[in-house]
């Protein structure tokens, strides 16, 4: 197969794997690894060593450098401290316990030296958000468990990568040298990695903060800087580049007032492309005979990792926390290994094999065995276990509201008053700031980004309201969350007649969702009513005041938005809703300013009449019981 044909095949297969993972709602790592093994050792269509030749090694090195830099950009020290003691313990004490335990067991069971045993232990401490997030959406554990697992996956990615890089650097430094010389070489590598990484991170951060690059060059300049620093570090000290770019990303992640949203979005897209292609290439290089060479010791090691090492890490990390026995059991079971372990292990195996470590060829199949086993086994069993332990969240009825404008905030407060979970997302900082001041939970940024997927707390959220004026982004948000929830749980506002050309460009699946709050209700209309003083109000439907009476009473002075039945289930009014509010239900509606003023006037008049009537009764009592003079 020619180079061009191979690249085309890898590109097409990468997209198909990502698409199938999206459709099946499974971690993308599974189809990527399986397809790579099928087209490689299975069918023999793709032979990376023959196709890429001498450029395979630098291609994998540069790809892993970018992946590590992108991952380290998410490691903010304040987030480690800000997500509870259990998360802090898991990514510090837990990592150490896992690494040491797996290293010892690997050394005892496998035919590895202490170097490869320690490296394997470092590689498989990482879980990672790309495998955790799909599992959490399926399992729906209690919010405290979900938050622990989510933030462990996010933070442990760069922490585990840094640990693996440090172990690898020490192995390289110690090769063929005495212990003293090994520590000297390792110290030089650490010094250059941290010094150059810190300096490069600070310099690039300052350049981005001060606008030294035009907007359209920021992403490309950042990529060029990462690759340049990686090459420079390797030139100064052999194999120090991965450590340098990892430190570089961590430094930038923790710089104050440095906005990395655009960089992260670009790097996320690039990482998806690199990881997809890289995984297929690496899986295609696997020797299926290597799995049989692992034998029963690998099975025992896998069992120890799943059933002993992870529980040990969780139980030690949970000392001093409020977690109960059942919660520790669930945390002990959910720890699928992910992308960083696979990508970094393959690169290190390549480098170690070139350096003369013959056993390194077994490193990749062993890591892939751990990944496939943990992802498949835990994906199939985590939900039943959570259900048996009674640690699953009830069905999610809360709302993610895209838009934090005045109308969206009023609706969110009305829903919150009925104890329904809400989350406001917006790309407008002023809207977000105002919502925060009103004590509403918010997310600042694009809710379809990978950052949002990793950071938004979607506990209790099961429906989406599109209440923003962003005509280009609204369909993207709606279509994105149709993959999370059933399409009938996505609601949007129709466009005005003036937006007919833009509306015609929308997909049919999105146009079908533009039915929110009834015919003729647009964002412009709601925003205008809110500006004029319209307010949210809840009205009870009774035997003496039916929904028909409600409609006759308010007419066009109220826009019914939600109906709450006797079970406290929320129903959304749309142009084609089928429910009919009954006695015992409640109607949540936006009441116009005129109606509010009229109600206030009626209320004031009634209060005045009641006050006058009360005064008259008091006077009548005085007249009927006059006081005697002199007493």
Detailed description of the structure:
This protein has helices at 3-24, 29-42, 48-52, 56-72, 77-81, 84-109, 114-123, 129-139, 143-174, 179-209, 218-236, 241-253, 261-284, 288-317, 325-333, 339-354, 363-388, 406-417, 429-437, 450-455, 473-482, 500-504, 508-511, 523-531, 547-554, 593-624, and strands spanning 398-402, 422-426, 442-444, 461-466, 490-492, 535-540, 558-564, 570-572, 586-591. The protein has 631 residues and is an alpha/beta fold. The protein has two domains: 3-15 and 30-40 and 54-389, Na+/H+ antiporter like domain (Na+/H+ antiporter like fold); 398-598, NAD(P)-binding Rossmann-like Domain (Rossmann fold, 3-Layer(aba) Sandwich). The chain has a five-stranded parallel β-sheet with strand order 3-2-1-4-5, with helices on both faces. It has a four-stranded antiparallel β-sheet with strand order 6-9-7-8. Helix 21 (473-482) links the parallel strand 4 (461-466) and strand 5. The model is unreliable at 497-505 (pLDDT under 50).
Secondary-structure content class: alpha/beta
Low-confidence stretches: 497-505
The CATH architecture of the largest domain can be named as Up-down Bundle
Identify the CATH homologous superfamily of the largest domain. Answer: Na+/H+ antiporter like domain
Note the overall shape.
Answer: elongated
Instruction: Give me the count of strands.
Output: 9
Mean pLDDT: 81
The proportion of strand residues reads: 5-15%
Report the C-alpha radius of gyration, rounded.
30 Å
Text of the CATH class of the largest domain: Mainly Alpha
The CA-CA distance between the termini, in Å, is: 119 Å
**CATH topology-level name of the largest domain:** Na+/H+ antiporter like fold
Major sheet description: 5 strands, parallel
Number of domains: 2
Number of helices: 26
Strands across the major sheet, in which order? 3-2-1-4-5
Helical amount among residues, as a percent range? Answer: 55-70%
């Amino acid at each position: 197969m020619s180079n061009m044909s191979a690249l085309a095949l890898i590109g097409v297969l990468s997209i198909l794997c990502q698409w199938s993972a999206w459709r099946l709602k499974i971690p993308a790592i599974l189809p990527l690894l399986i397809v790579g093994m099928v087209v490689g050792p299975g069918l023999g269509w793709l032979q990376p060593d023959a196709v890429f030749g001498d450029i395979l090694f630098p291609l994998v090195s540069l790809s892993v450098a970018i992946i590590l830099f992108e991952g380290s950009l998410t490691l903010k020290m304040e987030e480690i401290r800000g997500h509870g003691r259990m998360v802090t313990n898991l990514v510090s004490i837990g990592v150490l316990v896992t690494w040491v335990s797996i290293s010892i067991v690997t050394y005892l069971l496998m035919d590895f030296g202490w170097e490869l045993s320690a490296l394997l232990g470092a590689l498989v401490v990482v879980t990672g958000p790309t495998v955790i997030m799909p599992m959490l959406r399926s399992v729906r554990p209690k919010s405290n468990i979900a938050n622990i697992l989510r933030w462990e996956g996010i933070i442990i990615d760069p922490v585990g990568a840094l640990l693996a890089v440090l172990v690898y650097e020490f192995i390289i430094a110690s090769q063929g040298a005495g212990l003293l010389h090994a520590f000297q070489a390792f110290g030089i590598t650490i010094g250059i990695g941290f010094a150059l990484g810190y300096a490069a991170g600070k310099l690039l951060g300052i350049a981005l903060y001060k606008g030294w690059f035009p907007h359209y060059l920021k992403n490309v300049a950042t990529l060029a800087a990462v690759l340049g620093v990686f090459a420079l570090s390797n030139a100064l000290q052999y194999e120090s580049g991965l450590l340098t770019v990892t430190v570089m990303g961590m430094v930038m992640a923790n710089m104050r007032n440095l906005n990395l949203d655009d960089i992260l979005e670009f790097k996320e897209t690039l990482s998806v492309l690199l990881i997809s292609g890289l995984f297929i290439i690496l899986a295609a290089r696997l020797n299926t005979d290597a799995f049989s060479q692992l034998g029963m010791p690998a099975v025992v090691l896998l069992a120890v990792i799943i059933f002993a090492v992870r529980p040990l890490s969780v139980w030690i990390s949970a000392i001093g926390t409020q977690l109960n026995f059942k919660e520790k059991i669930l945390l002990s079971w959910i720890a699928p290994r992910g992308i960083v372990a696979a990508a970094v292990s393959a690169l290190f195996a390549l480098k170690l094999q070139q350096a003369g470590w013959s056993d390194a060829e077994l490193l990749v199949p062993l890591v892939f065995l751990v990944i496939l086993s943990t992802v498949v086994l835990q994906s199939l069993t985590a939900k039943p276990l959570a259900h048996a332990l009674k640690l699953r969240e009830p069905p999610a009825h809360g709302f993610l509201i895209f838009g934090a404008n005045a109308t969206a905030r009023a609706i969110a407060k009305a829903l919150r008053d009925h104890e329904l979970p809400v989350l406001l997302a917006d790309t407008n900082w002023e809207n977000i700031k105002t919502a925060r001041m009103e004590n509403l939970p918010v997310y600042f940024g694009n809710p379809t980004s990978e950052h949002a997927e990793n950071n938004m707390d979607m506990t209790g959220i099961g429906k989406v309201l599109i209440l923003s004026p962003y005509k280009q982004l609204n369909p993207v948000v709606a279509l994105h969350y149709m993959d999370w929830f059933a399409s009938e749980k996505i609601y949007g506002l129709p466009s005005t007649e003036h937006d007919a050309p833009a509306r015609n460009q929308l997909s049919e699946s999105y146009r079908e969702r533009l039915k929110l709050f009834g015919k003729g209700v647009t964002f412009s209309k709601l925003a205008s009513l809110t500006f004029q003083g319209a307010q949210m109000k809840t009205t009870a439907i009774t035997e003496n005041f039916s929904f028909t009476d409600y409609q006759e009473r308010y007419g066009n002075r109220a826009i019914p938005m939600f109906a709450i039945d006797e079970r406290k289930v929320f129903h959304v009014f749309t142009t084609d809703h089928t429910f009919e509010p009954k006695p015992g239900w409640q109607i949540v509606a936006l009441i116009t300013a005129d109606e509010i003023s009229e109600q206030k006037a009626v209320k004031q008049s009634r209060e005045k009449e009641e006050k006058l009537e009360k005064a008259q009764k008091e006077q009548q009592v005085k007249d009927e019981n006059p006081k005697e003079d002199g007493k």
